[in-house]
Amino acid sequence: MSLSPPHFPRITCSSSTFFIVITILSVTIFPCSAKSSDAASATHRGGHRQMSYEYYSKSCPQVEQLVGSVTGQQFKDAPISGPATIRLFFHDCFVQGCDASILIDTKPGNKELVEKDAFDNRDLRLEGFETIDKAKSLVESKCPGVVSCADILTIAARDFVHLAGGPYYQVKKGRWDGRISTASNVSGNIPKPNSTLDHLITLFATKGLTIEDMVTLSGAHTIGFAHCEHFLGRLYNYSGTSKPDPYVDPRLLKSLRMSCPEHGWNPDVISPVDVTTPFLFDHAYYGNLEARLGLLASDEALFIDQRTRPIVLELGNDKGKFFQMFGAAMEKMGSIGVKRGRKHGEKRKVCRVHGGV
Ligand code: HEM
Ligand SMILES: *[C@@H]1O[C@H](CO)[C@@H](O)[C@H](O)[C@H]1NC(C)=O
Ligand SMILES: *[C@@H]1O[C@H](CO)[C@@H](O)[C@H](O)[C@H]1NC(C)=O
Ligand SMILES: *[C@@H]1O[C@H](CO)[C@@H](O)[C@H](O)[C@H]1NC(C)=O
What we know:
two-stranded antiparallel sheet, Peroxidase, domain 1, Peroxidase, domain 2, binds protoporphyrin IX containing FE, binds 2-acetamido-2-deoxy-beta-D-glucopyranose, mainly alpha, 11 helices
């Protein structure tokens, strides 16, 4: 097992500055406010165009440069926007399809809760939403009423993968934004860190994603952070055994226990999901799993189970293969439940509010 030397950057949230504390293996950051907030493939209806790489070539040829200028700046100012936006894209696609339904705000005075209010979306970071707001407003200023929020989210997620050191892949465009965003539609569609592998496989299958896609997409955990509550169950009394999860390396266990004490742990403390290279989009995530350095039980499960272990080993040994498969899997995820045309979709002016064209 080779561990690369820890980075010692100082990154800023959009609102407050926070520090990173390096322990033996893990980096812990606190406290930074991180709180916020189908499966059908696209059908051709009403004569609306299919998704394509050139979808906006006439109506907004510079859309990717516009989004790129925002993501590039955002990556400098608040690098946490990267993992935040990639996860936002995932949570959007898994509920009602990739239709930016996750961006909708509750109307003032309206009691009906929207997707972002749902329990499973409770720790989506504000930086992801803020990035899309900025990109949308720049795109609207140049190509009003043309580009969907769903396409902007797809492009931004791709940009951040690349900015963090990952692959650059082309994205198809042509998604329309969804007209429905309700909190009640979320439950059961977002995987949990303590989900069994059987459950994860079934859930991804309902979205048209294979076991291979699932293992590949989980590689997004090569960047970003998780709160104590998501892995606390592994540290002290794993499945009622009164012992920690045996699949946590003892050194990792020690440092995670320091960050997240059994009693009185701080709900704002976060720990890197990729404990070796938390800011770099690389394939170290898979090597970590082999070394019992996976943070979430759902990560480590990919190595423990025979159905997924060969894929973990392959991707851990071949960064080129991981990068190529990751781009393809993101494209596949990006086509879940895509809406086209006015009957099911809209092109919003402001991503947080329904309506527009
Ligand atoms: C396989 C099932 C998955 C489970 C159970 C899962 C669960 C989680 C959990 C619990 C967190 C920590 C959230 C927090 O405490 O703030 C997290 C973070 C993250 N997840 Fe996943 N995830 C899964 C798949 C994915 C996929 C498919 C993607 C994207 C392709 C993804 C991207 C991310 C990113 C980028 C972060 C870091 C977010 C940040 O730092 O703000 N995850 N995930
Ligand atoms: C989502 O919620 C809306 C309104 O609550 C409901 O009409 C619709 O059937 C739900 N969609 C799914 C896929 O559950
Ligand atoms: C997973 O954790 C949640 C919340 O901590 C809990 O309600 C649920 O019962 C757990 N599920 C399993 C399969 O252990
Ligand atoms: C561990 O959890 C089990 C079941 O949840 C409980 O009965 C037991 O007392 C716990 N052990 C410790 C040491 O807390």
